[in-house]
Amino acid sequence: MIRKVIFLFLFTTSLLKAQSDMTKGFGLLEKGEFQEAELFFLEYLKTDPDNKTAKLCFGRAVGLSGEPQKATNLFSELLKEYPGDFEILINYNESYLWAKEYEQAKPLYADLVEKYPTKFGAVLGYANTLSNLKEYKLALSWVEKAIQLQPENTSAKISRKFMRLGYANEFVNNQQYGKGEQTLKKIFEDFPEDKDVLINLANLYLIVKEADKAKDIYIRYATTPKDSITALNGIALAEHIDENDKEALEISKSAIRKVAKIDDEALTASTYDRYVQALIWNRKFISAKNKIDSLETHNPNKNWILALKATLGLYTGDAKSSVESYDRILVNDSASFDGNLGKANALFASDRIIPAYNMANSTLKFYKNQKDAKGFIEKLNLMHTPTIEEHAAYTFDNGNNVAFFTNTTVDVPFSTKFRTTVSYFFRNTENSVTDNKATSHVLLAGLQYKLFPKTVLKTVIGLNNSRFLDEAYTQPVLDIKLDMQPFKLQNLTLGYQREVQSFNAELIEREIVQNHYGLNYNLGTNVNFGWYTQLMHTQQSDDNVRNLLFTSLYYNVLRKPALKMGVNFQYITFKDQLPTIYFSPEVYKAVEIFADIRGNISEKTTYMASAATGIQQVEDDDKTAIFRAEASVQRQFSKRFSLNIYGKYSNIASATAAGFEFTEIGVKAKWLFLKKPLFYKSLNLD
Fold first, then answer.
1. Cα distance between residue 6 and residue 347, in whole Å
2. What pLDDT is recorded for position 663?
3. Paired residues of 571 in beta bridges
4. If phi over 0 gives left and psi between -120 and 50 gives alpha, with beta otherwise, what is residue 619?
5. What single-letter DSSP state applies at residue 526?
6. pLDDT grade, residue 508 (50/70/90)?
7. How far apart are alpha carbons 246 and 464 in whole angstroms?
8. Cys-Cys crosslink for 438: which of 202, 508, 597, 625, Cβ 3.0 to 4.6 Å?
9. Sign (positive/negative) of CA torsion 350, 351, 355, 361?
C-alpha cells in the first residue's frame, strides 16, 4: 500500500510571520494532532472569520481528523471566494485523497499540473494519486518530475519508495519475479538497507523457493533485538521450504526464548504462530494441539489461532474441523487470505470440489492474480481435464513365455462427480518352446460416479476376445468397486471383478474365467504407521476356488523423499491343485520386508524405486528366497504431457497365475488433450 504524504502548507514566510498568533495551530497540524488543531482554528475563526489561512488550516484539520467530505465542502466554498487560488485548489484536491476517492482526484490533479507544471505540491500530489490507483509506471514518472523540482525532498523520496514497493508487488503477483526484485533493489539507492525492502525481498525469495537467498536477507534484517526475532521466524519458514523441518523447529524454539524477554504482543503472536507451525511440520501433533489450546485460552477467536487449528486439522486428516475453523476466520474477516484459500484447501481435502473452486475464485477477487490461488484452481483443472493414456510393455519369464501388450485409455470427466472411461487392451503372447501363440483384445467402458464426498462407485463393463491358433472366444468382463472413507485416515474398497486369464497362451486357450470378490482396507495414522489388508475370494470357471490374504504393516520413515518400509505377509489357498496347468497349491505362504522410495530428481522429473525380499513356502516344500523390485522415472514435459518409463522383476510364486518368475519393461504416456475441464465454463470463474 502506498502511504499518503501529508502536504505541508505552501505559505510564504511573510504570511506566516503576519499570522504568528496561529503558530500553535500550525504546530498541532505538523505533529498530526488534528482534532486539537480543529478546535484551535475553530476558536480562532470566531475572532477572525474571514482569515483565508485560518479557513484552510481548519479545513485540513477537519479532513485529516476523519471528515474528508466536510473538508471538501469547506474548500469548495473557499474556491467560490478565491477562484483559481493554488493553495485552496491543492487542498481541495488532497481532500479527495483523504477520502480515498482517487478516481475523482485524478482529473483534478491532471488539470492542476497542466496549469502549474512547476509546482512541487501539485506534481507530487498527482504522482501519489496515480500510485493509489496502482498506475505505478505513470506514478513513478511523475514522482521523478517532483524530485527534479526538489531533489532533496524527503517526502518525494518516501513516495517513490512506496510506489516501487507497490510496483514490485504487482510484478510478483504476475509472476515477474526478476522485475520485482530489480524494482525493490532500486529503493536502496535512497534508503540503504531499508527494512520494508528487506522483508519484501525475503518474501519474494520464499515465493520462488530460493531459501538461501531469503535466509541471507533475514540476517541483514536482524539489526535490533525485535528484528532478530522477526528474522528467526522468517528463517524458520525458509528452512521448511528448503525441507529442513527439524532445523526450522530448532530455530523457532530459539525465537520463542528471545521473544519472552520482549514486551511486544504482535511479535509474540507471530513467533508462537511460527513455532506451532514448525511443530506441525515435524508431525508433533500432540504438542501442537496442546500449545494451540493453551494459546487459545489467552487469545480467544484470534484468526492466527484459528488458522493453526485449521492447519493441524489438514495435517491430521480432519478436514471437517479445518473447514469450521476457516469459517470462523471468515466471519471475523471476509477478505482474509488464510480464510479464503485455506478453506478452499480444506474443502478439497473434504472432496467437495465445486465449493473448493468457488473459494479459490473468491480468493482471487480479493487478491488479484495471487499465485497460490491460481495454482490451486489449475490443480483442480488438471485433475478433471480429459486425458488419453497409453501403456505399452514387454514381458518375459522363465517359462519361455514372452508377451507384448498395449492399453489405450481415454478418461473424460463430465463433472466433478461423473466421469467415463473407454479403454482398449491388446496382448500378444507366445511360448518359444511349445510354439503356442495367442492374442487378446479387451474393450472396456467405465462409469464413475461420486455418490457422496469420498464415496465413489466405479463400474467397468466390456468384452474380452481371445484367439488361440484357429480357435477364438468372446467373454464378457465386469469390474464393480465402491471406494469410500468410512472414518478419518481410513480407506475401504469393496469390489467384484469378472476377468479372463490372459497371462500366457496356454491359459488363454483354456478360457478360464475368474470371479473375484474382494475387500481392500488401509488404515493410516498420525504416527507414521499404516496397515493395508486385501482379502479376495475367487471362483473360477473350471470349478476351482482361490482364497487370498495379503496384509502389510508399514512405517513412513521420511516425508521428502517419501521413504516407506514395512513387512508383508501373503497367504493363498486353492481348492484343487492343478500344478501342470497353473500355480494352484493347497497352501502358499510368503513373508517379506520391503522398502519404497519416491522423490524428485528435478523440478519436473520424479522417480520411484521399491524392493522386497523374504521367504516363501509352497505347501510342505522347502522355504525359498523371494525377491522383487520395481523402478520408474517420470518426466513432466509440460502441464499436459508426461512420460513414464519403468521396469520390474519378481520371482514370487504368486506373482502370476502360472507362478512364473517374470520381468516387465514398459512405458506410459499421458496427455491432457483439452486445456480445461468440459464443465469449466459452467463454473463462471473467469
1. 45
2. 93
3. 549, 589
4. left
5. T
6. low
7. 54
8. 508
9. positive
